[in-house]
From TrEMBL:
InterPro entries: IsaB (IPR058086). Residues 1-23 form the signal peptide. It is found in: Secreted. It comes from Staphylococcus ratti. It comes from the Bacteria. Transmembrane segments: none annotated. This is Immunodominant staphylococcal antigen B. NCBIfam families: IsaB_fam. Keywords: Secreted, Signal. Belongs to the IsaB family.
């Protein structure tokens, strides 16, 4: 009986020491910096409001942490290996399985481009297309484009790479 008591006491002391050591370990912000920010969107985008003005959405675009209707927009954009698929009102460039390299979607009308620039800052490039004026923002891993027609955002495109 004494032997069992000693084993239980020793186990308790070892467990307590291990947990105490873990509690005393300092928190490192490096581990948090490597965590990818995620933003998941499900459903039709035209009825979702101006979700693309959310700072969490912007961070997810910048860090390839965006998911649309089950497709993670994380693969490099390569025209040779993608297959386009319409999912709800979005066009998704699927690389394989549930991994995609881009998504293009219409948005609820009514958002002036000034609201976009107040969140995203000065665009990397502004140019004309057949759909309207395009405001491009390029980041290290991704690009987002806002198409403006009739003084409001009508389309958003997100793709990986430049």
């Amino acid at each position: 009986m004494k032997k069992i008591s000693k084993v239980i006491l020793a186990s308790t002391l070892v467990t307590g020491a291990l947990l105490g050591t873990q509690a005393a370990t300092p928190y490192h912000t490096v581990a948090e910096a490597t965590t990818t920010p995620w933003y998941t969107y499900n459903g039709q985008t035209q009825f979702g409001g101006a979700f693309y003005l959310n700072t969490h959405f912007k961070n997810a675009v910048q860090h390839r942490g965006l998911s649309f209707n089950g497709y993670k927009i994380s693969a490099p954009f390569n025209k040779k290996t993608i297959k386009y698929k319409k999912v709800h009102d979005q066009n998704v460039a699927i690389v394989s399985g549930s991994t995609a390299s881009s998504v293009m979607f219409p948005v609820t009308k009514g958002t002036p481009i000034q609201k976009v620039t107040s969140i995203y800052g000065k665009p990397t490039k502004v140019f004309e297309s057949t759909q309207g004026t395009v405001y491009r923002y390029q980041y290290k891993n991704a690009t987002i484009e806002f198409t403006e027609a009739h003084k409001q955002v009508t389309m958003v495109s997100v793709y990986n790479g430049h």
